[in-house]
Amino acid sequence: MTYVRDVGALARKDLLLELRAKDTLPAMLLFVAAVFVVFHFALPGNPSRLETTGLLWVAILFTALLGLGRAFVPEREQRTMDGLVLAPCDRSAIWLAKSLATLAFLGAAEVVALPLYALFFHRIGGSTVLAVVLADIGICAVGTFLGAMAVVTRARDLLLPLLFLPLAMPIVVGAVGASIGHSPGRYLGFLALYDLLFGVVCWGSFEYVVAE
Amino acid sequence: MLTAHRLGKRYGEKRVLRGVDLELPDGGFLVVTGPNGSGKTTLLRICAGLAAPTSGTVERRATRAELGYLGHEPLVYRELTALENLDLYGRLYRVPERRERIGMLLERFGLWEARHDRVAAYSRGMTQRLALCRVLLHDPALLVLDEPYTALDEAGAELLDDQLTELRGERTFLVSTHDPARVAPLASGRLALGT
Amino acid sequence: MASLVLITTALLFVFYVAPDDANQGFSQRIFYFHVSIAFTAYVCFAAGAWKAFRHLWKRDPRADLESYVWVHQGLIFGAMVLVTGSIWARISWGRWWVWSEDELVLFLILYLFYCAYFMLRFSVDPGPQRANLSAVYALFGVVLIPVSFAAIRLAKEVLHPRVFTLHGPNFGGWILVTYCIAQAALLVLAYTLYRVELAGKRLDLRLRELKEVLA
User: Fold this and answer.
1) How many CB pairs under 8 A join A and B?
2) CB contact under 8 A, A88 and B92
3) How far is B22 from chain A (nearest CA, A)?
4) CATH of the domain at B150
5) I need a surface site. Which of A57, B67, B113, B124 has the fewest CB within 10 A?
6) How far A86 CA sits from the closest chain B CA (Å)?
């Protein structure tokens, strides 16, 4: 129960910081809209649903990367990670809270992005929405974890996409399969399995990322 | 409370600490002195559990909840207000009667009027006062203070003097400073680090 | 020494003892190396992850370097998988790259993943933090291997639903013997390379420490 309260306190802090700084969410929104316009010109004519679905997932992935790259910037710039690490709460709460905050931003960006996609290209089915939810969880869980790793390196922002994209490959497979496949259930199940598996790995090993 | 045996720390090729022994009994007040670059900060970070020694052992008989650490950085979010920062730490440390305790500390360190201001608008001295509030918030049994007088004006330094005197004996202190005269009346021991 | 003998024996078997493939003839012989190299790479990655686990769990001070060296070997063998696989694809399908070969696609992903491992490692100063980050990422790798494999299988079904089948190549007689010898040879080779690199790296560390003591 105290664990939930710790996560709540930390996530509240992240939302409050975004509310003050207002830099992540507007950037994600602008980015995803711009990417759609780029797609329109990159795929001239009338692209099929198959093609635009692939592009939708590319857009979601890269928009998420934008947000994930910002996730630990307050801790890095204001050097507050030591304070969180010293607090008596379980260190995995830091990861979980940050993942939840990033998930909220990504979700908010998608609330705008998905209708926009439907307006610009093709309509979206229920299985796609479900896939978005499940994929978001995996993206934020793994991406936040890797973001915490990337901020302590010299390469910083450069490193996150390199670390993240190979690990995101299964998410893309599951998400695209659920959006256009013949039996979305299997792909949704695969996404859920991915979330569970990597969620447990992240939860168990975050301690080693932040503590020496 | 704290025992260290033959501590060594290397960052890559550079050796910052070499064979440091340290013994701090309950209620003690150990002052760590030494010139810049002698490893004071590294030693304190190891004692607080923020860094792992390359060699040697350190044994601390205080949990994370019983430890108060003041570093070079204030460890507060600049975009949040003083109240919001202390509220976050108060929740994480599960401080009983959080609001009252926070109010009392802010009052004592002269920050009550500025409690709703963002820390970004604070002067360095005010930020250091807030950092001290953060350290004292959960009434820790072991206080590890790295150059606590940094950036404080005379009034702030006197406030800190009073606070240390009040807690001396009841709590255990590990304090690094380049001005040992200031805390000399409180010190129970002194550890001089060479270069 | 042992690895040299085994490699020679394996080469002899591959070229002189194993029969020609009915469809692909002589060129099919690269298969022996392709498959056994791939298996060796998995073994290296798994060993790297095991050492990473030892580092995190037991705080074994030697485990970090050992884990790194295993992953490095894995990356070398992984590169060889991509090269031999590409040659095989050229022979079988007339193209240097085919997305239909699961093993090849998987190794491409793993190759990218472990290259990122190196980027990560070289972007952090040596010390406990680098050891921890490397170890955690290496552990992610062993989780990624089966997940990616399943994903690649699933990806092929998106447009062409089909049933999973598990029919391996028909091993028999000399083919099996040759394969086993090639496999053993490569595993021993990987281990030998691992020992050599580890010894070199340790010597390097030792030298630096001595230099510092003298300085």
Assistant:
1) 69
2) yes
3) 21
4) 3.40.50.300
5) B113
6) 6
From B122, B139, B156, give the residue that closes a domain.
Answer: B139
Convert the pLDDT of each residue in C78-114 to its tens digit. Answer: 999 999 888 888 887 888 888 888 888 999 999 999 9
Same domain, B132 and B149: no
**Is residue B69 in a domain?**
no
Q: What is the pLDDT of residues A80-124, one digit of tens each?
A: 999 999 999 999 999 999 999 999 999 999 999 999 999 999 888
Six-digit token string for A56: 């939708």
**What residue type is B21 in one-letter code?**
D
Task: For residue B190, tell me if it sits in a domain.
Answer: yes
Chain B 39-78, CB below 8 Å of chain C: which residues? 51-52, 54
**DSSP strand pairing (B67-70 vs B55-60):** unpaired
Q: How far is CA C77 from CA A79, B130, C30, in A?
A: 41, 55, 15
- Alpha helices by DSSP H, listed for chain A, are 2-21, 24-42, 49-71, 73-77, 81-86, 92-120, 126-151, 159-180, 184-210
Which residues in C lie closer than 8 A to residue B13 (C-beta atoms)? 208, 212
Residues of chain C with Cβ-Cβ distance to A176 below 8 Å are 155, 158
| Residue B67: both structure tokens together | 């430890």
- In a shared domain, residues B149 and B186: yes
> Residue B182 belongs to what domain range?
1-62+141-195
* A152-181: burial string, b at 16+ Cβ within 10 Å, e else: bbeebeebbbbbbbbbbbbbbbbbbbbbbb
